Amino acid sequence: MSSLPASVEQRILLRTATSRDAFMASAVLARAQVTSHTCANLCELVRGLQEGAGAIMLAEEVLSDPAAAALTEALAAQPPWSDLPVLILARQGADSPVIAAAMDRLANVTVIERPMRVASLISTVRTVLRARNRQYQLRDLLDGLRESDQRKTEFLATLAHELRNPLAPMSTALTLLMRKPHEPADAQRYYELMGRQIDHMVRLVNDLMEVSRITRGKIELRMEAVSLEAVIKDAIELSRPLLEGSSHTLSVELCRQPLVVRGDGVRLTQVFSNLLNNAAKYTAPGGNIRVVLREEKRNAVVEVWDNGTGIEPDMLKSIFEMFVQVSGTSKAAQGGLGIGLTLVKSLVELHGGSVEARSEGLGCGAMFCVRLPLTRLEAGATQAPLPAVSGWPVSLSRTVLIVDDNRDAADALSDLLRSLGASTCVAYSGAAALRMIAEGPAPGLAILDIGMPGMDGCELAMKLRANPELSGLILVALTGWGQRGDKERIAKAGFDHHLLKPLDLAALISILQGHS
């Protein structure tokens, strides 16, 4: 966007035949509250164009000036969004060849014959200035699109970097495990390493999906009375590994009386965990982080302070926008896509609240303040934890059919379920699954991928549901598709359950125990 003063961008540059004409024209425009600037010659007018103008007004007499060629060049060199209006004050009488030539050379020309009515002049000037304002709007739009495109480019580069980071240790660990046999105790640390890196990649992908769902209005909140003290304690537990890993000192100041808001406890925990993670990442090891919970004018106020890298004043608002990362601080952050604050702002606003950032500048730390409307205390139900995975439910004694066109994914899941005591069979396409079922025996559970080529998982599910011999079959969709429309399509196809990849084994065991 332009940094020029509005008066410069709206002014009329004048080059008249006489100084008296210039004085009169300036006076008329001033009475109409139009800013003008009189140029002594065309060279000065061309320089004025480079500084900014809403339009130019020329007398016919000055078009024969040799310097008119410089004006033509300056107008031809305008940026794509600009088409500066040119008003020519023509002498009364027959059409002038000078005017005709000017209309050929200059694109956006309006000819006004002298003498003219003042109302006609002012009306024409206001019309061209309105057209010029449209051009400025187009300029700002193009600048915004260009900046957004640059942010997306930087974001994709960051995404590629962040996804490569966990792949490197996973690849190294796999190479070590394949080079020579390892005792189980020695191999365990490599398995744990790969597990941590997989968890990190899952968090990255989940963050991307969360932003996508929120920005498209596809997220559903489970609203209930929530104690903010409990939410903050849960958020601290989630962020504790990062805080302790950087040896930060965390202090917490809670309100004496309970503060209750109406919201989704899981999402609010995500909000404050993201703010704590952000503080931890942008604070040097051994830093101080402080959380304050207080009441202010029927609002609950949560402040997260740090003494980290700080934020430049001009970034305090845009820091919450998608694809924005604070320049000069990215090296201080310890990984991540820089979309955590976008999630924070979106989730807080969905709860009817607001969030703002404050900082005195780079090197001065930062404070993020969340305000949420208070509600009266009500008893809220708590979600029961998922059971620990100890073995395959004994009630599901029949074969488990796994269908996925990704052979590695299907085989790995089969091996995992077998390790728990399940009997499995694997098909790599919908057609192969139907042939396998026809040959028998009938499975008791089928775990189907959705996005398969040819016959997808939903089509396969409908064919299975149409088979009366499979009336007791439990159908589970295991897929990367998790939007509301996907869930509706999967349910309509006849699935009993819908799980997202990668498989949460405890969730699978939990829902299957419900069929016992």
Counting helices, strands and paired strands, the structural category is alpha/beta
Strand content: 15-25%
Main sheet: strand order: 2-1-3-4-5
Q: What is the terminal-to-terminal distance?
A: 64 Å
Shape: elongated
Radius of gyration: 34 Å
Give the low-confidence spans: 327-335, 377-387
- Give the count of helical stretches: 15
Please summarize the sheet with the most strands. 5 strands, parallel
What is the total tally of β strands? 17
The helical percent reads: 40-55%
Whole-number average pLDDT?
A: 83
Question: What does this protein look like?
Answer:
By secondary structure, this protein is of the alpha/beta class. The protein is 46% helix and 17% strand. The protein is built from 15 helices and 17 strands. It has helices at residues 6-10, 19-31, 42-51, 68-76, 97-105, 118-179, 184-215, 228-245, 265-281, 340-350, 407-419, 430-439, 457-465, 484-492, 505-513; strands at 12-15, 36-38, 55-59, 86-90, 109-113, 224-227, 249-253, 260-263, 288-296, 299-306, 354-358, 366-373, 400-403, 424-427, 445-448, 474-479, 497-500. α9 packs antiparallel against α10 and α12 runs parallel beside α13 (457-465). It is elongated, with a radius of gyration of 34 Å. The model is unreliable at 327-335 and 377-387 (pLDDT under 50).
Give a brief rundown of this model:
Helix content is 46%, strand content 17%. The protein is α/β, with parallel strands linked by helices and 516 residues long. The protein starts with 5 loop residues before the first helix and ends with a helix.
